[in-house]
């Protein structure tokens, strides 16, 4: 009876830890991903409007900058976490993330303050990256050190869901806000609301995290006087541990990173910018796929406790390598109106006149609307005379069947994400001893995800634009060579050098 009560109390304690850690981590991911979810709108707010493609690439570069500095955040906060403790370190990262996100929502646009606008956004984006560099390692370590033996994969997989759920929540808030205030007002100033809302979410999370207790394993080594005096030197100055860091990076996290960002962020960018799918519909596609696929993080995390982490992660990478090009070709064809049958008699020209807020002036837009037999609608909006931009806006609204198939293709990609990402936290935690775990696991994770993975949308989109300029017939597929190449390298190294069995640290 007492054994059952003790087991029940232990399980209850783990779930409290998971809930407290996950809420804060989810909010940090929400903060971090709002920027990427609104990339198409932010490019018009913070960069000159005379070259939309250059503005969009600049926005993706600013988005990527937050990823590039994540390894530095891992070093700074990882060291702090191994010296001071897990709890207070990722409490600090939460405050930094929430504050910088809120301030992005306050930055005036390019027309108001010129180049100072993108400079301020870049600075705040860098703070976000540093904060996230310290958050994930702390949350994953904290949950793992509360988890019972043999169930780390299952319990840490709940932390893994927070990245995808954070993206899902960001899309949800964006869509609800846009629906409530209308397309034009949202594009003009309503996009700031999701950023400003961060302050409220962070306040709630801080309250929850202040009630958390320090990790029992960290308390144990602290009591025994075994805390590392120099976590950075011990993590990267010792040959044996450095070998594990490099193996974690090039045999797991780099490949996992490109699979993650291809299946979610590049998919969104591809649907919006290359397929020209209407903004709200493209977000619904991603959000629905994320919602349906999210439980598989827990499924594959739990499965990794039984059959090991390696094979599940490598299988996800292999599937990405083999199927990305056919999947994205099929996605492109779903939105390609040249392959559809038009209902020519229904073609129409619409003229829309709206008052410009705060003035007595009106703006007029003219759009040609075409209808197709599968339910797809194509709208081509001509810029108004005197507009700073001369680019024609193309907008495809998919019919029901095409919408379902597009969602299915994104779901398949997110399924790969759950395979590589569900077991990764337990895999990394088990590679390193408690005294340097925060530092050692954070760096390869954030280089793999922040640099290799985070650069995926920018590099892939740049490759597509370059291929278009050279007249390549399948230019829209050229961006995929980057994630395919990185995943293939990781697949080979992981298969050759990672032990089939899950690792166990010496102090476990």
Automatic annotation (TrEMBL):
Stored Pfam families: Sugar_tr
InterPro entries: MFS_dom, MFS_sugar_transport-like, MFS_trans_sf, Sugar_transporter_CS
PROSITE patterns: MFS, SUGAR_TRANSPORT_2
Keyword terms: Cell membrane, Membrane, Transmembrane, Transmembrane helix, Transport
Subcellular location, record wording: Cell membrane
Main localization (coarse): membrane
Matches recorded under PANTHER family: MAJOR FACILITATOR SUPERFAMILY TRANSPORTER, SHIKIMATE TRANSPORTER
Name of this protein: MFS transporter
Organism: Larkinella bovis
